[in-house]
Amino acid sequence: MEKIRLNEALNAMGIACSDPRVIAGIHDDSRRVGRDWVFVARNAKAERYIEDALVKGAVVVCGHIDPRADVYAVEDVEQVLRQLIACCHPGLCEHLLCIGITGTNGKSSTAYFLYQCLSHEMPCLWIGTHHVLCEAFQEDSVHTTPSLCELVRLIEKGRDVGIRCVIMEVSSHAIAQKRIAGLAFDHILYTNIRSDHLDFHHCEAHYRYTKYALRHYRKAGGRIIVNHDDPRLRALYPLVEGNCVTYGTRLSHFHLHDVETVRTGLRFSVNGDRYETAVCGRFQAMNLTAVIALCHLLAIPVRRLQASIRALVPLDGRMQKVWTRPLAFVDYAHTASACLALYRSVGEIAHRRIITVIGCGGERDAGKRARIGEIASSCSDLCIFTSDNPRGEALTDIFAQMRQRAQDNIMIFEERAHAIKFAVKKSGNDDIILVVGKGDEKIQLINGRAYAFDDAAILCRALREKEERA
Ligand SMILES: CC(=O)N[C@H]1[C@@H](OP(=O)(O)OP(=O)(O)OC[C@H]2O[C@@H](n3ccc(=O)[nH]c3=O)[C@H](O)[C@@H]2O)O[C@H](CO)[C@@H](O)[C@@H]1O[C@H](C)C(=O)N[C@@H](C)C(=O)N[C@H](CCC(=O)O)C(=O)O
Ligand SMILES: Nc1ncnc2c1ncn2[C@@H]1O[C@H](COP(=O)(O)OP(=O)(O)OP(=O)(O)O)[C@@H](O)[C@H]1O
Ligand SMILES: N[C@H](CCC[C@H](N)C(=O)O)C(=O)O
């Protein structure tokens, strides 16, 4: 961080200030600030924490005139926040290899695989939905892409421990809310664009064009790595003037072929080179092809890549096999397209029946619930609808929407743990049990409270108890 005086920084933005203290840091959360920090209260809710920040010795920037000393009123808080960060953290991404990953499904899987492959080459930092991870430290995440202030904090923290590469998942919310303002990526990778978050974006075109807008955050010469199978991504080509590198099962720069689902994971070829991995799920072959394309751009030899992919540790909660007889998986599909990919992958494994436990999150895109209910019930022999982070919504409303186009093989258990136990009770040794929607989440959010909850642990316990009883 540069040594910038408060008066210099604010005066440069036309804000009167004569305070010459050196800015120690900038944050929009009062819990993160200390002496000589700038706390930027971005909205009315945040203004409740002005006193908290002042007590800690911070100065405050907010959108309302406030008579207290050390509080500066500005017209456009968001813009001042971005300018302050640009001024105190110039070139945040310089001398770092920065890779942004976006798409409806597969961001975390792709990012984690890439993190593992690139960590053999240089120290990396992965910023994603559930984890911020590098060799020196690990933090839990709340969002797929943290706020701008948190991103700056994490990248600076990573720089302090010597990371040379940042792999970041970028959500559409983050692009729309400019959480990545001032960041620049060497390469941007698109997994796929389907439908999600229409509660926030209101229409698919807005969602899609928001995702496309990530292209503006490229460093000069940066490449865009695109899933060529996806027609919504092919529409991106004219916008990026020949800077695309394509991958997919259609004719592409990195052509995926001969995918085999085996009991031990996957085998597949890219441009004639054979890869094998313990990662499960046909959909992961596409994510891995994206990783291979990117590693190729970084001049990593195929031999080394084959070895890295053979050694990959799967990401918990993504078609995670937790039991073998019956076969039981935990998966994080929470969009209709992810559900389709999941059932396609599972369908390739020999089985008698498929028993699914699934729910849809509250206070998220309600428009996807009917389609998810339809897919899950029509692809299962028995389908149990249950809770998945209802947040502040009534479960009865969520179930009503999930049932709209569902088959008549559904049952409803409000308690997710009961639903899982019931699925286990009904299963036979040759069946497949799928527990879908929460992946490796460790909490269940109900009415503003977070309760400890772990699909994999509950499923394993129920299966173990059943086995012991038998
Ligand atoms: C609609 C939306 O984007 N809301 C975001 C917004 O909420 P908010 O303004 O209501 O925040 P709040 O938590 O009530 O707090 C108000 C303010 O007080 C501040 N505060 C709070 C407490 C305190 O002690 N001191 C303090 O200063 C907070 O930093 C915040 O600035 O600002 C908060 C702080 O940055 C975000 O956590 C919050 O994301 C909400 C919770 C959210 O869940 N967003 C989801 C939809 C989201 O962004 N999801 C995507 C997922 C995409 C995907 O993976 O597919 C994501 O990027 O993760
Ligand atoms: N390439 C893909 N195509 C279709 N579905 C996929 C693909 N990759 C993953 N999925 C599905 O999406 C689920 C979530 O995967 P992952 O966490 O990698 O995606 P994500 O985009 O990071 O999700 P989130 O938006 O919640 O962060 C998986 O469990 C699987 O069901
Ligand atoms: N990153 C996604 C995850 C949703 C997962 C599902 N379990 C839910 O809570 O809706 C989101 O926040 O929209």
Q: Could you please describe the fold and organization of this structure?
A:
The protein is of the alpha/beta class and 470 residues long. The chain has three domains: 6-88, MurE/MurF, N-terminal domain (Udp-n-acetylmuramoylalanyl-d-glutamate--2,6- Diaminopimelate Ligase, Chain: A, domain 1), CATH 3.40.1390.10; 97-310, Mur-like, catalytic domain (UDP-N-acetylmuramoyl-L-alanine:D-glutamate ligase, 3-Layer(aba) Sandwich), CATH 3.40.1190; 320-469, Protein-Tyrosine Phosphatase, Chain A, CATH 3.90.190. It is built from 16 helices and 23 strands. It has an eleven-stranded mixed β-sheet, sandwiched between helices. Helix 4 crosses helix 10 and helix 12 packs parallel to helix 13. It is globular. Ligand UAG is lined by residues 28-31, 42-43, 45-46, 49, 129, 143-145, 147, 171, 173-174. Ligand UAG binds at residues 28-31, 42-43, 45-46, 49, 129, 143-145, 147, 171, 173-174.
CATH topology of the largest domain: UDP-N-acetylmuramoyl-L-alanine:D-glutamate ligase
Overall number of domains = 3
The dominant shape is globular
Tell me the radius of gyration: 24 Å
| Structural class by secondary-structure content | alpha/beta
Could you tell me the strand content as a percent range?
A: 15-25%
**Main beta sheet, described?**
11 strands, mixed
